[in-house]
Amino acid sequence: MSDETKQPRDDGASWAKPVDHLQVSGVPSGGINLNVQGKQLTGPLKGFGQMWQKTYRVALTGQTVEPTRLISEWKANFPSFWPKGNNFYGKLGSISPGDVAVLNLSGPANSSISTGIMVIYADDESFTFMTPQGHIFAGMITFTGFEEEGTTVAQIQALVRASDPIFEIAARLRIVHTQEDIFWHGTLTNLARHFGVTSPNVTQKDILVDPRVQWSEAGNVWHNSAIRTGMNLPVRVLRQIFGKKGASV
Questions:
Q1: Residue 106 belongs to some domain of the structure
Q2: The whole model's pTM is what?
Q3: Per-residue b/e over 9-26, b at no fewer than 16 CB within 10 Å?
Q4: For 34-58, what is each residue's pLDDT tens digit?
């Protein structure tokens, strides 16, 4: 496979149906369900900051794993490969077109950010997420398995912009980019170890696709998930004190 992105096959059943607003269900009481319900999807064209293509790869060296098996097990056990402190609340055992999941992500200084994703594409060879309004990045993330020189490779490729001016400042300071890199390096390391690779070597390639910012999207800050999660903290604390379930907005 070349270094170019492998395009999903033209299979209508593998694409999610268009939606105006996201709908969330089935989040456990321990999950922070914020910044997803009723939000719209925002691809990389609707973000504020510079557009980056970030590609992370790990080869399953020494293991005989078909790409389709890699993707099947990756989808079936997706949350288990995430680094500790991060939670994916989606449909258990499956990644299917149209699925919406709530994410509770570990932020700077032991903070937490509640956001989400929607699965916009999934087949036997790959699956793709798109982010909602307020997510750290406006973009798409594609998870792929393919064979290269006789070895199966797991790849995560993100096409993203910081969603608003605040997140773009954090991106320019390398705060959110560093966290994103650590997160996906950890995920691929865990995935490779799941398949028996004892010393995974995760590689990364970053390409600045568009150095400009889009001032027309500066208003995205209204949906900033970090701010909204932080503002909701006192409400969650009070509900816990008085024995009620966590907030759902």
A1: yes
A2: 0.89
A3: eeeeebbbeeeeebebee
A4: 899 999 999 999 999 999 999 999 9
